[in-house]
Design goal:
6-stranded antiparallel beta sheet, 24% strand, alpha+beta, 323 residues, elongated, 2 domains
Length: 323
């Protein structure tokens, strides 16, 4: 664009600021419907007809829209005053740069956004009360339509999964060493939060065997993507691990459901004892107690610039099996 700050704005220059769907992206593409990693579901701003005049209301609408999205993404914009009817609408400094900053923030999943709220548990799935093989759970989160799903992640929404141990597997009545090590492993995993372009892990420690945290919503397909495998580092339980996978029901832009699968695998077979064991010695230290997989949702509020909240429509337990 061959424009200079202070020049009277031309219709095609204004329309590029408003509606361009390729780089440099216009406001409507990253803030309106958009496509893929662009779009937040906000009302589109009208363009002007070829040869038309840009009026004060139209220019102010663009400036207000820019400020609203910046408030949500927490980006700093160039300070500009509004214009009044009858004023000559001159191009303001750094409009293109500010639009590029906002487009990049939205494409990255609005990682600076704080107008978010995390739910209590949407679904909680328990294993059998005692087990020694694996506990696998699939939780799904569904959106009203494919655009809402994209806007949710683009605006900073996340799907979160965590694992906890709530029971003891040994017959002695208390937590076995294996139980306690599972507790430590789950604490090290923390919460896995699947965002727009990446996933995060809130815990630390243990052995990170598979690191797929660079994958987010926009990287998922219809087959499971491995987000993380965290393995117990303490002998004799180094064959125990927790997996998190995620997939969509269709390609991004058509998908309305994300499914998250967690698998706790117990590969450590402790020594067991015969019926003649000494009184008070646990006869079944190889067994695990009840484990839980819980899913929560971090959704979008309208507290800092967006016109309305953006959230899922439903959640479900797709499967829950213990072996």
């Amino acid at each position: 664009m061959a424009y200079t700050a202070g020049d009277t704005i031309l219709d095609d220059e204004y329309n590029t600021f408003v509606n361009n769907s390729s780089s440099p992206f216009g406001y409507n593409h990253f803030a309106g419907t958009g496509s893929a990693q662009y779009g937040l579901g906000q009302s589109a701003i009208s363009t002007v007809s070829a040869g038309g005049t840009v009026n004060a209301a139209q220019w102010n609408a663009l400036m207000t829209g820019i400020d609203n999205i910046a408030n949500h993404t927490n980006d700093t914009m160039t300070s500009r005053s509004s214009v009044s009817a009858g004023d000559t609408i001159a191009i303001k400094a750094a409009v293109a740069a500010d639009l590029a900053t906002l487009a990049a923030s939205v494409a990255g999943g609005s990682t600076g956004a704080t107008a978010l709220t995390t739910s209590s548990a949407k679904q909680t799935s328990n294993s059998s009360s005692t087990w020694s093989g694996s506990h696998t759970v699939e939780h799904s989160v569904t959106f009203t339509n494919a655009n809402t799903m994209r806007w949710f992640f683009n605006a900073g929404g996340k799907i979160n999964v965590a694992k906890t141990r709530t029971g003891n597997g040994g017959s002695g009545g208390g937590a076995t060493t294996k139980d306690s090590n599972w507790t430590t492993l789950y604490a090290a995993l923390g919460t896995i939060a699947i965002g727009s372009q990446t996933s995060t892990r809130s815990g630390s420690g243990e052995t990170l065997t598979t690191n797929g945290l660079a994958n987010g919503f926009h990287d998922l397909g219809t087959s499971y993507t491995h987000i993380i495998r965290l393995t117990e580092e303490t002998s004799p339980y180094t064959s125990n691990y927790i997996d998190v996978h995620a997939k969509l029901d269709a390609a991004v832009g058509s998908a309305v459901t994300i499914t998250v699968k967690t698998t706790a695998n117990d590969g450590a077979a402790d020594d067991t004892y015969t019926s003649g064991n000494t009184s008070g010695v646990d006869a079944t230290p190889d067994r695990n107690g009840t484990h839980q997989a819980t899913i929560t949702v971090t959704s979008i509020t309208d507290a800092q610039g967006l016109a309305s909240a953006i959230a899922e429509s439903s959640t479900a337990v797709e499967s829950n099996s213990t072996s």
